[in-house]
Amino acid sequence: MEQPVFKRIILKLSGEALAGNQGFGIESEVISSIADQVKEVVDLGVEVAIVVGGGNIWRGIAGSEKGIDRATADYMGMLATVMNSLAMQDALENIGVPTRVQSSITMQQVAEPYIRRRAMRHLEKGRVVIFAAGTGNPYFSTDTTAALRAAEIEAEVILMAKNKVDGVYSADPFKDETAVKFDTLTYLDVLNKNLGVMDATASSLCMDNNIPLIVFSITERGNIKRVVQGEKIGTIVKGSVS
């Protein structure tokens, strides 16, 4: 059995990834498939933390465009990530993977508060930790949450799982037939070319803390394990190309 090349990872899942083809809500087959893939990685001895978006339920920016106060809309989006996190926890524990949800917004009946040292202790004990409710602040995305938590818990890499594309392209491959897939990029490339991999705040945070990012497709089963074992799939984004 191939050994993993990473010891501690952050898996970033978009809310849309949980919705599958239905486009909204949570599709049980999809979340079960993701849980199975996470278990494969945990069984290799890799410490896994997860950040889940909430776009399958609510998007703060979309809400603010409809007239809702931006901060209020963002808090609503944070609550959506808690719902997704609880669903992910349930799917993982149904297949025997001990999991803890830590929320940046206190809601002690359903989740632990986010405490860095406690999160790291859970990881050391082989538990999956799901970081919910973003950073706990409006105006920050779950991409930024992933970058921030990765720096805090000293994760070696962020795995950004996509449900529609298998990497980073020069343009939207569904709209532009000439779009080219990149194998390797720097964070400066992402910022300068406005590639939309993650927002500028998250990209800068990853660049400043030298945290690599691997963008790949979640729809092909086994891809998380392949990435963790060092297989070259998707697009790698890092501080420099050397």
Helix-strand layout with pairing:
Layout: E1 8-13, H1 15-19, H2 28-43, E2 47-52, H3 60-65, H4 70-94, E3 99-103, E4 112-113, H5 116-124, E5 128-132, H6 142-153, E6 157-162, E7 168-169, E8 181-182, E9 184-186, H7 187-192, H8 200-208, E10 213-217, H9 223-228, E11 235-238
Helix pairs in contact: 2-4, 6-8
Any overview of this molecule?
With 242 residues, the chain is an alpha/beta fold. It has one domain (8-238): Acetylglutamate kinase-like (Carbamate kinase, 3-Layer(aba) Sandwich). It is 39% helix and 19% strand. It has nine helices and eleven strands. The protein has helices spanning 15-19, 28-43, 60-65, 70-94, 116-124, 142-153, 187-192, 200-208, 223-228; strands at residues 8-13, 47-52, 99-103, 112-113, 128-132, 157-162, 168-169, 181-182, 184-186, 213-217, 235-238. The strands form two sheets. Strands 4-3-5-2-1-6-10-11-9 form a nine-stranded mixed beta sheet, sandwiched between helices. α2 (28-43) crosses α4 (70-94) and α6 (142-153) packs parallel to α8 (200-208). The mean pLDDT is 93.
